[in-house]
Write a structure and sequence with these properties.
With about 240 residues, the chain is mainly beta. The chain has a single domain, classed as Immunoglobulin-like, CATH 2.60.40.1930. Helix content is about 5%, strand content about 50%. The chain has 2 helices and 21 strands. Strands 2, 5, 6, 9, 10, 11, 15, 16, 18 and 21 form a 10-stranded mixed β-sheet that branches. A hairpin with a 3-residue loop joins strand 15 and strand 16. The protein is globular and about 50 Å long. The termini are far apart.
Length: about 240
């Protein structure tokens, strides 16, 4: 009974750390020279949980940076403003092609979960979304040499009953046999693994929001802000919505 209680306590506490993830939302299509709004959330989408800006959970992960990566690879840093349940920003596409929105946070304090048999670790969040301007989709940008990145290599624009093809990288290398989670609202989830080329495919049966998350424990100890940790918990998410 004591072990069950500790496990339950661990799961509750973990909702404020690695069980959560950052994700970024924006319209899947944009127009030349028109403002494109971007929102950054923290929580667990499939459970309908979005943390509130200004409270402890979101404050612990708010040191993120946001970039708009143009089709030619040019990066523009975006400044964010707080709202109620998200941070918001925007950019203006200047050329046709695929823009990648990248949110990265590798500045999260070390947490100690040894009493729950999980260890002492720091977290690295990396999340992406894409914006198609025009009608010629191309691969999303890959700019996370310190952790996981999800590259959308789909040949067609996402559509209901279509398919999305993703390629997963870890520190610039193809991630073979990597577990990948697909989340949709109301607890609908699917779990698959990448193939030998780091590829994974998902069908898109619903007009809804899709969030893909990939996680990995980097079993290398270190020190951050004066605190030692046993490993790094990497989490990368990719979000798009079918309307």
């Amino acid at each position: 009974m004591k072990k069950l209680f500790l496990l339950f306590t661990f799961l509750v506490l973990s909702t404020n750390s690695f069980a959560h993830y950052l994700w970024v939302e924006t319209n899947a299509t944009g127009k030349l020279n028109q403002k494109q709004d971007v929102k950054i959330f923290y929580g667990e989408y499939t459970y309908g949980l979005q943390e509130k800006v200004g409270e402890d959970a979101f404050n612990s992960v708010k040191k993120f940076t946001v970039w708009a990566v143009a089709p030619n690879g040019e990066k523009t840093k975006l400044e964010v403003q707080p709202s109620d349940f998200f941070y918001q920003t925007s950019f203006t596409p200047k050329t046709n092609g695929t823009y990648t929105i990248v949110v990265n946070n590798n500045e999260i304090d070390v947490v100690d979960y040894t009493q729950y048999n999980y260890g002492i670790f720091k977290t690295h969040y990396h999340c992406l979304a894409k914006v198609e301007v025009g009608n010629k989709p191309s691969e999303t940008a890959s700019i996370n040499p310190e952790g996981i990145t999800i590259v959308d290599v789909s040949k067609k624009v996402h559509a209901e009953n279509g398919e999305v093809t993703l390629k997963i990288f870890y520190k610039g290398e193809i991630a073979k046999e990597q577990e990948v989670d697909l989340f949709v609202k109301d607890l609908w989830t699917k779990k698959v693994k990448t193939d030998a080329d780091g590829l994974v495919k998902f069908n898109l049966p619903f007009k809804t929001k899709y969030i893909i998350e990939v996680t990995k424990k980097e079993e290398v100890p270190g020190k951050y802000n004066g605190k030692e940790y046993q490993f790094i918990f990497h989490s990368s998410s990719y979000t798009f919505t079918l309307k």
